[in-house]
Amino acid sequence: TWEQxxxxxxxxxxxxxxxxxxxxRSRVSVTQKLSxxxxxxxxxxxxxxxxxxxxxxxxxxxxxxxxxxxxxxxATRGSSQRAESVTRCERLSVLHLMEWRRIFxxxxxxxxxFVAKPGTRRSASIVALNSEMRFVLxxxxxxxxxxxxxxxxxSDRKAFQSVAAILHLENPDGQVQPQRxxxxxxxxxxxxxx
Length: 194
Fold this sequence. Notes:
By secondary structure, the protein is α/β, with parallel strands linked by helices. The chain is 26% helix and 22% strand.
């Protein structure tokens, strides 16, 4: 399992958020507990749970206010994210209260892919997470000879745009417009292959 591999292979302290009961997983106090671990594992289904009401901006990202720092996991947002950037409120997971250092999304391209399906609750929930860095790790499809980036670029444009939005790839004016991004220069730098 990922949990065992991370513990044994890296020596990191690992917490499996998805292993908590639904009641425990949805408590706001769990964010304090999570801040003491090096790596947190969860599932796409846990991300779409409707635990709390969170304000989101025009890009669909959770807007956080007055959150205390907790050993680097949680940090207050700078003045660039003010109350006027809030466009609506959504019911999201308690994990959206946290500021993450790095997020790795693991998925497989194809019909069962979560990150390349725009407009779903899972993709909206992934976009809403706050982080400094984001990566997508695509598992190799059985029988596929193409690298993940080539499979993605050959799939429909909406799948490519969904992955670009999830990675928060933006142009200089701050708008997520993946149709203007060069596939070769952007996504190849952000997509890893297992």
